[in-house]
Structures
1.
Amino acid sequence: MPQASTFRQYSYYAGWFIRSKLGMKRPLVNTMIIHYACNLRCKHCAIAANADQIPEGNSLTFDAASREMKAEFDKGAKILFFEGGEPTIWKDGERGLGDLIAEGRRIGYYVIGYTTNGTGRIFEESDVLSISLDGPREVHDQIRGPGVYDQLMANLEKTDHPNIFANMVVMKPNLDKIRETAEIVKANGKIRGLMLNFLTPPPYDITLSHEEKVQVVNDALQWRKQKLPILNTERALKELLIEDYSEKCPYWVSSFTLPDGSKHGGCPMQGTDSCKNCGFDAVREYRLILAGNVQTITKMSRRFALSKR
Ligand SMILES: C[S@@+](CC[C@H](N)C(=O)[O-])C[C@H]1O[C@@H](n2cnc3c(N)ncnc32)[C@H](O)[C@@H]1O
Ligand code: SF4
């Protein structure tokens, strides 16, 4: 199926926005955590920390994924994101992530993307790629493992994909490397910008204190003015300082399917201690979109919702 026209997408998003104002809370994004398997064991990742307890074979099959994609599409989700674990190593027999992307396209999703540690192949057919970059080489590798930075950069060299964004999780090991990371992104012709997030604990020992977060946000606001490619909107950066975001979080904007096939009408972390300490920028941007914040609507729709391969 060809990608929906920009006009059709705009009309749909506008209708979704109006319906949400009238109290109709339908997902716009479908996040599919297709498996927990991963080739890395990053310091800050709860999936890595619990890798031993995850039963083998805890992975969506192609057929189950297809069913869930269709069900969420019919409920209203038009943006599809694959998550893991590491989505690029997902397999069901001969099928891989490329087949899931093709299936999402066949169903009619407007925008399809995935998040990756960047060590595997790049799926060029995806509309958006979100790569994880947690610092310059030494710090990225300290968090993610030896050689990971060079592998990521070598893979970026090989692609001309136009919509690659970087995600950084700010925590104690990379606290003083944010500016340097933004400069790396600026100098790298393949990455369009850097989205800053705070670590969502656990682990608590490398989570920033509130004072450290205030400093990061103040610095980031300055760096944006100096034209460093920080993608968070100004308001969202400030809202990252609201420590307990659980009351404000529009958790229903994305539906979630987990590897065991269970479904959540919103973020699976809702109601947990992690939820109270959520450091994800995206939920702030979602809230601001729903609040009608023009800067957020314009920037986020240009970057994600209307992105085309
Ligand atoms: C769970 S990973 C899955 C995709 C892929 N394996 C990757 O690393 O990009 C998705 C994103 O969540 C981030 N992440 C992992 N643990 C986190 C935590 N405790 N708090 C905030 N973000 C976290 C990762 O850095 C990554 O950018
Ligand atoms: S690569 Fe992604 S899923 Fe794997 S351990 Fe690191 S953050 Fe977790």
Note: The mean pLDDT is 92.
2.
Amino acid sequence: MDNPTLESNSGSQAHTDEPQAGGQLNDYLQKIINSIATPVVVKDKHHRWVLLNDACCSFIGRTREELRGKTDYDYFPKQQADVFWEMDDQVLLTRRENINEEQLTDSNGVTHTILTKKNIYVDAADEPFIVVVITDITDRKKFEDALTSSHQQLRKLSAHTEAMVEEERTRIARAVHDELGQSLTALKMDCAWLERRFTEGQTDLLARTQMMARMIDETITTVRRISMELRPEMLDDLGLAATLEWQLQEFKKRTGIDYTASIIPKDIRVGDTISTAVYRVFQETLTNIVRHAQATRIDVLLTADAHMLLMQVRDDGIGMTNEQRTQTASLGLLGIRERVGFLGGVTEIGGEPGHGTTIEIKIPLTHTNFGGTP
Ligand SMILES: Nc1ncnc2c1ncn2[C@@H]1O[C@H](COP(=O)(O)OP(=O)(O)OP(=O)(O)O)[C@@H](O)[C@H]1O
Ligand SMILES: [Mg+2]
């Protein structure tokens, strides 16, 4: 019992619950596994450590003499030993390899995150042993955790910046629309006032004033367009569905690309954050279609129920390769994925070269961001 070993190759030797006496084979095995820099331990069916390499002893922080014949419960906290034994039992039962991420506290009280790979070895006498190979992944986990948390921070920062930009755009759009618009309307009225006061002989002055009035009209149109492009007021007033329809009409006027739009239900109303995000995704999708797709028509589907909003934009253009889909240098598609991802949604980019492109986004809705009629 004090000196348990991995059974030698003698099939004739009877197996009892007592660990077997060591033989030459054990010395040989011991030498071989000592040459492995990764911690390796072999357990018998009673979970006793029968063979440990040097790397394993120094990882745990104890001598081989201290460890041999002992079990996980002798040196590790109970909750860790429970997990080790549960995995041992799985391997013994299924006789299949098992890989598990676990915690191990060494003799200095340092807790490591380890990846434990367990395999079954059955000797000539049909006695099962568990071969355990341990990889210390503590540092890797730390890096992964740091990376995940920094990615989350960057995501938050990017969403925060987007929200600030959006706020600023809304403010400028309103100022341009209201203040500039009002001044221009006042100027237009002054022109009309002047026009009425010219005498018959003042045709030059009248013509010049009429020209000014026309220029003011054009400027009013430009101001409206700039304000709309910055942020359409109708997104806040009439909602997402109406804004997308308006944008499609403008798109057709500008590019000649035909469209169909299915909006179900017609009065889809979602909260500010989501409607802004979907609107910006839609803008980028249309810009991409104009810039890259060579499409002749697009089909748009916007639908929502109490749980999910779905927008699908399909074009009949040249399509995309896998490489283009995953390009990291360009920011348009990345921005779409980020916006949607931040809202807990998913983006799918489908299609093949020569068969058009489909961009589909799904965003989960809750009762707070889904409202019925406008
Ligand atoms: N509808 C589309 N049809 C065909 N190719 C497309 C379409 N949308 C995007 N692509 C391809 O995918 C690439 C990546 O698009 P993405 O919007 O990320 O970048 P971009 O439009 O090139 O630049 P930007 O960062 O200014 O948006 C494009 O360069 C283009 O080759
Ligand atoms: Mg783009």
Note: The radius of gyration is 36 Å.
3.
Amino acid sequence: MIDSWPTSARLWDRAKASLPGGVSTGMRASMLPHPLFFRSGQGPSLTDVDGHTYLDYVLGWGPVILGHGHPALTDAVARRLPHGATFGAGHELEYLAAEAVIEAIPGVDRVLWSNTGSEADQIALRLARAATGRHRFVKMTGHYHGWSDTFLLGYRPDANGRLDQPGTKGQHKSALADVALATWGDLDSVASILRDPAQDIAALFVEPVLCNSGVIAPPDGYLAGLRALCDETGTVLVFDEVITGFRLARGGATERYGVLPDLVVLAKALAGGYPVAAVAGRASILDQTTQGVVHAGTYNGNPVVLAAVQATIETLSAPGVYPAFEDAGRRLADGMRTTLDKHGVVGAVNQVGPVVQVLPGMDRCDTFTQFLAGDQQWYDAVIVELLRRGVFVLPGGRWYLSTAHTLADVDTTVSAFDEAVAATVLTQGQPRSAMRDESVVG
Ligand SMILES: Cc1ncc(COP(=O)(O)O)c(C=O)c1O
């Protein structure tokens, strides 16, 4: 059992002198018991600077879909490295990797390379505005499309419980003027906005599975309903597949649910951990970058990361990858549900393919409102108990599986989860809304 992380604590102290909060993104400051420092990763495991090894369900917050140090990916990058870091000019991998994306995702004709999901969402909106001559966009509450001023709205309630306020200090209130917030799962809330010409809506952005707030799958027919509304009103439908792309199927949620958006935003799993993003979709929309829509970026189409894209897609294209993800995801989720039941803990577990979400204190979670009612304080205690037992997970309840996680790893993890839940029930009591009367709204 791991009891302390003295070297990590020391390095974090030192890092705080040069990095605000000692971290490179504010979100990592929320890691428990404090941000840890790692030495290396191998397959499904990570080793920290204190020499502790963990089964890793953080996976770099999603990208490391092949596990750490996958030989095909490492070799592709290593083969590319001696030939220069970047050209700022054309090279073969730009179109070879784009062809691999086009072949994998239904309905895609063109690919624009970018560097992060936040950037790619931004160019998707610009393209939609140019294509429609309209200005505003619809965003669902609880959905995340990056940290930009444009999109960091309606994601989490502010201190007064309001979703219609800026998402961060320092964001100009004018960002709110461009967004119309809708409710995930409720077609009527979208229809009333899209059918009102005064709303001036260019695009509808959705995470096709609401991964950032509960891993909530779309209700039956919901994505098709969004498609029909966008067709009716001439609105550009954007699937933000930064999490779901290459993860829920080779063709992402687009393939899994059989509904074709106009634009797909990709990042994370696309390159197995190397920094790249893309907007893919219909030629008529993307070719606008040759007709006056500015899309720039010094590092766009970087050869090293595109070698990673090519190797990642090729590796994920092997037979059996996605059925294995389903098996591992289901086994982890079922094991967690059985564990919660065994300890008399009220909690739901959502799972779509290799993405799993623990939702303490509720019987089910189908809406963003229900998600917000979860008992984070109780789950925070579970996170630390898991870490002590060699399992590294994200804050907030989402777990990612990689191709490197075996069913035996999953079983080991479920045993650790069982011990962690038992330990927290002893120290913390049940999650808050295990008192069933404190009913979950939504
Ligand atoms: C659905 C979704 N869109 C966009 C982003 C932003 O991507 P990035 O962090 O690469 O800017 C994220 C990041 O987690 C995401 O989950």
Note: Residues 116-118, 121, 144-146, 207, 212, 240, 242-243, 267, 277 surround pyridoxal-5'-phosphate (CB under 6 Å).
4.
Amino acid sequence: MQKADVLCYLEQKKDELNEISHKIWSNPEVSGEEKESADLFRILLAENGFEVKEIEGMEHAFIAEYGSGAPVIAVLGEYDALPGLSQAVDTKFNPIKQNGPGHGCGHNLLGTAALGAVLAVKKYLEETKLSGTIRFYGCPEEETLAGKVKMIKKGAFEGCDLALSWHPMAANTALEHAFLAMNSIKFRFHGISSHAGQSPEAGRSALDAVELMNVGANYLREHVIEKARIHYTITNAGGAPNIVPKEAESWYYVRAPFRKDVEEITERLFKVAKGAAMMTETTVDYEVISGCYEMLPNKVLFDLTYQNMLEIGAPKYTEEELAFAKALQETLDPQAVAGETKKLMPEANGEEANIHQGVLEKEKANSVVVAGSSDSGDVSWIMPMNLFLTACFPLGVANHSWQATASSGSSIGMKGMHFAAKVLSGIMYDLLNDPSIVNAAKAEFNKRTERRKYVSPLK
Ligand SMILES: [Zn+2]
């Protein structure tokens, strides 16, 4: 069995994979509730000879392992959906269930491509008896940025040599840099309630503290690095206006390209919170809900990924698919679409381009900014890791949109998924056949983490 045979095996599995991804798409389960999606993967992997292990305290997380010996390769599979993004495979806004959940980040494709890749490589290991272990990691709670952080804390990734993942997006590209590091923190202020009309002097307002903290945070913005992001909502603003609020709560996200900046800004935000409490004679406590790292680059794996993307080649689309993509683009801001097209497909030269075709040149990969956060970043700090993107949405469609849900359920999304499955298995094929690549990736990882080791954002 050669690499071409591994890819050919995946080609034969196409319909089966489409069906699995569609099943998950049709039954979207949000973070923490991914029961049926996780079970579907567990059962399929067990049926295919993988040993399925549970992760204590995480109902919808698991490890499915096949093979023996080195290298031990982790493939990350996610399957959670997003609230409020229900949408049919339609070019008009058409939710299947009003305000229901939907796969607006394409994790139905993400998990299924990872599944396809490990099944193909399992077949290869079985036939060649090569040394190597593959592990499918069932990773829940990605959208709340918590699943993998918890899994790391529980030691679920111990014994792995490296990790691979991918993500549905509007471009085919290997990535060297990705994700913003972040902290998600809830601040709870405690005051003294009193009758707001009769005895306001006896009250100490927790809501005043929340508001003053927000003012302080908005002044802090001016004095942090330009690429930092601070966003908040008020999650408890008290009750009736005639009662001085005893309890109030705000929820903050701090994001920046590097974890060290997030930590530094978070410390300063704690001071702002304390200052607000002092001004209002209230007290404050906080809880770090989740936090994650940016992706640590690994040039060796980046090069290998790019090579495989080129070798395998991006999908081609039918007239029908291009028309569907065009109709979806028409629901977007034309300038945003034009901007994306110019960046990703300059060869289109102002002409209409509906789906990214081909693979973005290696030199341009860093122009693709993945400005969200992901708990996959944390995995890249405990072992060498790489992540790539494939075009599963039309150019200009952003993740976490109804247009993305529509694409994730369409044949456009599925083509991106098959491409991803092939790239993942191609990378694994190379890693299994050339231990020097694994060693080089590990040496690079060790060098990059020499001075800065991973510390869990969770207490
Ligand atoms: Zn996602």
Note: The radius of gyration is 24 Å.
